[in-house]
Amino acid sequence: MGKVTVITSGKGGTGKSTVTAGLGAALVRRGNRVLVIDCDAGMRGIDLMLGVSGELVFDIADIVGGNCPPSSAIYPCKTVPELYILPAPQNVRDEVSPYVMRRLVHVLQKYYDHVLIDCPAGIGSSFESAACAADRAVMVANAEPLSVRGCEKVRQKLRQLRIPEIRLLINRFSERKFRKLDAFIDLDSVIDKAGARLIGIVPEDSAAAACTQRGEPLEGRIKAVYALDRIAARLDGVDVPLEL
């Protein structure tokens, strides 16, 4: 049974989907077979980031509606073998219910080592559908007050869903910008405010942003790749020291 991890954020613009795509590739580099499920109905973007948008015919709503078997709506990422994507519906009205999502994920996780669920930002109506089947959650935040405050709300909702493991990932971190903002004393203050144990810090990296916009995998000698590889190891249960 594959481990199911929901990737969330309290507000938009944190780079959550980029992190999801990057972690998927990082887990594959560790020898895993990985499925990424995009749950952002009406605003899907993981297919673009993983370079499969031109291949799409079916999505998760087609599976639920009986229009196709699950295998027809799951697309391989051609540049990252063993990384697969199940796209979100194009229309919000086709959002999958929590009950159906649980049943679907329970079936799919048998065929993968990891299932990563890209949750819509915030705690709107689709939040529960995305998070309900997860074994654990990773909250993606930037080291700024609005983003961290959003984590507090997300954490409360995750606890209501009885998700036992909730971790914090600080994304697009810049020491210079953090000091200039002067909103927190240090990173420990950010972690305390978010209320979750830190799983890793991904530095601000223009090369990584360019890769995802072009639909290219995050790989090679990129600062963000090094950080994501270490986070992927922790998701695999390896004791990798944190670098603050």
Structure classification: alpha/beta
Series of secondary-structure elements, N-terminal to C-terminal: EHEHHHEEHEHEHEHHEHH
- Binned, the helix content reads 25-40%
How would you sum up the global shape? Answer: globular
Strand content: 15-25%
Number of E-type strands: 8
Largest sheet, strands/sense/barrel: 8 strands, mixed
**Please, what is the average pLDDT?**
90
Count of discrete alpha- or pi-helical segments spanning 4 or more residues: 11
Structural Rg: 17 Å
Q: Segments where pLDDT lies below 50 for 5+ residues?
A: none
Q: How far apart are the first and last residues' alpha carbons, in Å?
A: 33 Å
Biggest sheet, spatial arrangement of strands: 3-4-2-5-1-6-7-8
Write up what this structure looks like:
With 244 residues, this protein is an alpha/beta fold. The protein contains eleven helices and eight strands. Strands 3-4-2-5-1-6-7-8 form an eight-stranded mixed beta sheet, sandwiched between helices. A hairpin with a 6-residue loop joins strand 3 (75-76) and strand 4 (83-86). Helix 1 crosses helix 11 (223-235). The longest helix has 16 residues, at 145-160. The radius of gyration is 17 Å and the shape is globular. It starts with a strand and ends in a 9-residue tail after the last helix.
Provide a compact summary of the structure.
The chain is an alpha/beta fold. It is 39% helix and 18% strand.
List the helices and strands and how they pair.
Elements: E1 3-8, H1 16-29, E2 34-38, H2 46-49, H3 60-64, H4 70-73, E3 75-76, E4 83-86, H5 98-108, E5 114-118, H6 127-131, E6 136-141, H7 145-160, E7 165-173, H8 175-181, H9 187-194, E8 197-203, H10 206-213, H11 223-235
Parallel strand pairs: 1-5, 1-6, 2-4, 2-5, 6-7, 7-8
Antiparallel strand pairs: 3-4
Helix pairs in contact: 1-11
